[in-house]
Amino acid sequence: MNKNIIGLIIAGGKGTRMKTDVPKPFIMINNKPIIWYSFNLLNELGIDNQLVSIPSNDNEYFIEEIRKINPKAKCIPDNVPIRGNAAGLISALLSIPENIDHIFVLHPDSSCFISVSTVLPALEKHLEQKLVSTFSVKEENFLEKAFSLGGNGDVK
Predict the structure, then answer these.
(1) Residue 142: beta bridge partners?
(2) Which of 1, 2, 79, 132 lies in the 20 to 30 Å Cα band around 18?
(3) pTM of this prediction?
(4) Distance CA 10, CA 129 (A)
(5) 10: number of Cβ within 10 Å
(6) C-alpha distances in angstroms, 8 versus 31, 39, 52?
(7) Which residues are 8's β-sheet partners?
(8) Are 62 and 86 in contact (CB under 8 A)?
(9) What is the C-alpha to C-alpha distance for residues 87 and 59, in angstroms, rounded to an integer?
(10) What is the pLDDT of residue 146?
């Protein structure tokens, strides 16, 4: 894969709607933390340069947990005065080296349902057209895949 591309994982979610104290990136689905699927997708796409945007509070916990999954990933705390996905994206953009032309953004809570065969054609077109953009992908049979991961549809 192109060396001037970064895989950026926005991983600051709390998971409060899931009624757990476990931060969303570390909630287990099919015996793996949700963020593992993001790293796996980036690896399958050949994107080795991986950056994770993490919350500014509890960042030591996030760094420790992410290092267990992918010791090579670089963690960037959200250090801007806004909240949400925009904070993660802005903080990461401020830390990305100038030689990076492309940013592939993933959200851990959806990447566990996205396959390489869905993303790769869009990513190849993105690179071919020399675009800098964000896009989202809806996987075919999304609900069926969600239920198959959790067995009965429950998040584990």
Answers:
(1) none
(2) 79
(3) 0.79
(4) 25
(5) 25
(6) 23, 10, 6
(7) 51, 105
(8) no
(9) 14
(10) 47
DSSP 3-state of 103: strand
Going from the C-alpha of 118 to that of each of 13, 101, 141, the distances in angstroms are 24, 22, 12
Nearest to 52 by CA among 1, 91, 79, 17: 91
Tell me the pLDDT tens digit for each residue of 109-144: 777 778 888 888 878 877 887 766 454 555 555 445
Query: CA Rg, the chain, in Å?
Result: 15
Residue 25 tokens read as 């990136």
Residue 55 scores a pLDDT above 80: yes
Q: Which long-range contacts (CB under 8 A, 24 or more apart) does 112-121 make?
A: 112/29, 112/34, 112/37, 112/38, 112/149, 113/139, 113/142, 113/145, 113/146, 113/149, 114/41, 114/139, 115/139, 116/41, 116/44, 116/45, 119/41, 119/45, 120/45
